[in-house]
Amino acid sequence: MSGNLVQYVVVRKDLVKALKWPTGALIAQACHACTAVMHQFYQDSNTQQYLEDLDRMHKVVLEAPDEESLRKLADRLLEDNIDHKLWIEQPEDIPTCVAAKPYKKEDVQQYFKDFKLFR
């Protein structure tokens, strides 16, 4: 069912490296963004199909080097009508993560090809 759908998640690597955020805090940012985008686009047919088989969800977690690259990604997704959530941590007002709703890989892979797998 959900096997041909993927959810891309891009988190800022500099938050861990340069700003010394704990890994758990960064993981929480990705969780917030994923939860928000799934809620925001819950009625979408891709989202519904993705949620039909919870044991086979497919996510790709990538790293953005800094805030600028994350914002550029969010802007490009917005311009091309790719549904996503730019998570901005409050009250600090820090953009930390972008999560796209589930899409067919071939429909959105181009937007994420310049980002490396998160390590």
Question: What tags apply to this protein structure?
Answer:
6 strands, globular, single chain, 26% strand, six-stranded mixed beta sheet, 119 residues, Bit1, 5 helices
Short description:
The chain is of the alpha+beta class and 119 residues long. It is 42% helix and 26% strand.
Topology:
Elements: E1 5-12, H1 14-17, H2 23-40, H3 45-51, E2 59-64, H4 67-79, E3 84-89, E4 94-100, E5 103-104, H5 105-112, E6 116-117
Parallel strand pairs: 1-2
Antiparallel strand pairs: 1-4, 1-5, 2-6, 3-4
What would your notes on this structure say?
The protein has 119 residues and is an alpha+beta fold. The chain has a single domain, classed as Bit1 (3-Layer(aba) Sandwich). Helix content is 42%, strand content 26%. The chain has five helices and six strands. It has helices at 14-17, 23-40, 45-51, 67-79, 105-112, and strands at 5-12, 59-64, 84-89, 94-100, 103-104, 116-117. Strands 1, 2, 3, 4, 5 and 6 form a six-stranded mixed beta sheet that branches. Strand 3 (84-89) and strand 4 form a beta hairpin. The longest helix has 18 residues, at 23-40. The chain starts with a strand and ends with a strand. The relative contact order is 0.28.
CATH architecture: 3-Layer(aba) Sandwich
CATH topology: Bit1
Q: How many strands appear in the DSSP assignment?
A: 6
Shape, per Cα inertia axes? globular
What is the CA-based Rg, rounded? 14 Å
CATH superfamily: Bit1
Number of helices: 5
- Distance, first to last CA: 29 Å
Largest sheet, strands/sense/barrel:
6 strands, mixed
Characterize the quaternary organization of these chains: single chain
Order of helices and strands: EHHHEHEEEHE
What structural class do helix, strand and pairing data support?
A: alpha+beta
User: Which blocks of ≥5 consecutive residues have pLDDT under 50?
Assistant: none
The total number of structural domains is 1
Beta-strand level of the residues, as a percent range?
25-35%
> Averaged pLDDT, please?
96
Fraction of residues in H or I helices: 40-55%
Q: Provide the CATH top-level class.
A: Alpha Beta
